[in-house]
Amino acid sequence: MKIRQPATTVFALITATTIGCAPDRAPEPEAPAPLAIETPAQPATLSPEALELLKQQYPVLREERAPEPQPSPDASPRQTPDWVREVAPATALRTVTGQATFYADTFEGRRTASGIPFRQNQMVAAHKAFPFGTVLRVTNTRNNRSVNVRVVDRGPYNSTRETIIDLSRRAASQLGYIDAGRAPVRVEVLEWGEGTRSG
Fold it and tell me: What is the CATH number of the domain that holds 94?
């Protein structure tokens, strides 16, 4: 004869068994496997001789700025250099008189009528008619200072009829009229240019 245990006794045994087997805390998740990181290959070390050879075979290409023209160390606004005196003709090919002005700084680097960029530190001038490349001797009749300039531009146009030539700042400085802004001048043609003539 089988002995049947009460249902309450069986439930108590199952509960006790379950509680006794339960762990104290939840199991920690397994850490993911570390990712494999590829180490880049180190470049081969070249000898100084090999590097120099590569530099010669593969030069760095870049645009080099042209050096700015510098005044001669022996230049003086009070005297004409000997080499200019030897080359310049004794008599001018043509002589005109009038007023001279000089370029504003805003024209620095702009393209002139002859096509070249204008530079304030060059001995250049603008004239309404003389061919490009014409060499002129400009004399300030107030102090008798003279400079030689080359015609590279057209003008001046925004001045009075007495203004016949526009000079670079360097030329005007040597003639001594920067503060005044203009000066009476005598312009003598020393050599006709081969460029375009206006008028």
Answer: 2.40.40.10
